[in-house]
Amino acid sequence: MKFEVKTLDGANAGSVELSEAVFGLPVRADLLHRLVRWQLAKRQAGTHKTKGISEISGTTAKPFKQKGTGNARQGSKRSPQFRGGATIFGPVVRSHAHDLPKKVRKLGLKTALSAKVAAGEILILDQAKSENGKTKDLLAQVKALGLNKALFIDGPEVDEKFALAARNIVGIDVLPSQGANVYDILRRDTLVLTLDAVKHLEERLQ
């Protein structure tokens, strides 16, 4: 499929042929959902913790005798029904990460790219470079292109001045091609790829 290429100033810079095998797949919501869950589970800290009965400080003695008091029988003041007692089946420190086959991850990334193409939410730039690294100048260019929330993906190396200029703009993210991932692609309204990014993504995902 053929796509127009633009410059950061909005001028036409020719066209590029996008691979159907990477950018033309059917959109599968189930696959995208699996990939997003996998990514977010990996980044979850898992540091939540409550104390079990063995970790509560306090006496191990029986609070009162078994029979004759009229109260319900009790074996420990550290039990969950008492104030300051244990939490039963509470969270413990653990990893939330789970496995996902490499082929599924690869297909998920291709599906995310295809979803952006199908929705018309993709823009191809000849390059993403900033002359002076000024946020004000880049913001004017981004607004002229009609971008609000966008993810810029460049080649293996991101232009340092462009990254510096972009990092203070709310809603704009910049990634190298090897950092392209499903969650970041889907969370922004527009996907902006440079010609370098297209080349390296196609090589990586073919």
Question: How would you portray this structure in words?
Answer:
Belongs to the universal ribosomal protein uL4 family. GO terms for molecular function: rRNA binding; structural constituent of ribosome. Keywords: Ribonucleoprotein, Ribosomal protein, RNA-binding, rRNA-binding. The protein has 206 residues and is α/β, with parallel strands linked by helices. It folds into two domains: 152 residues, Ribosomal Protein L4, Chain: A (3-Layer(aba) Sandwich), CATH 3.40.1370; 41 residues, no CATH class. The chain contains seven helices and six strands. Strands 2-1-3-6-4-5 form a six-stranded mixed beta sheet. A hairpin with a 5-residue loop joins strand 1 and strand 2.
List its traits.
206 residues, alpha/beta, Ribosomal Protein L4, Chain: A, 2 domains, six-stranded mixed β-sheet, 6 strands, elongated
Helix content: 25-40%
Oligomer: single chain
CATH class wording of the largest domain: Alpha Beta
Order of helices and strands: EEHHHEHEHEHEH
Q: CATH superfamily assignment of the largest domain?
A: Ribosomal protein L4/L1
Poorly predicted sequence stretches spanning 5 or more consecutive residues: none
Alpha plus pi helix count:
7
User: In this structure, how is the largest beta sheet organized?
Assistant: 6 strands, mixed
Mean pLDDT: 94
Give Rg in angstroms: 27 Å
Total E-strand runs:
6
Total count of domains:
2
CATH topology grouping of the largest domain: Ribosomal Protein L4, Chain: A
Shape, please? Answer: elongated
- The CATH architecture of the largest domain can be given as 3-Layer(aba) Sandwich
Strand pairing plus helix content: what structural class?
Answer: alpha/beta
Binned strand content: 5-15%
N-to-C CA distance:
15 Å
Strand order of the largest sheet: 2-1-3-6-4-5
InterPro entries: Ribosomal_uL4, Ribosomal_uL4-like, Ribosomal_uL4_dom_sf
Protein name: Large ribosomal subunit protein uL4
GO biological process, one term: translation
Subunit structure: Part of the 50S ribosomal subunit.
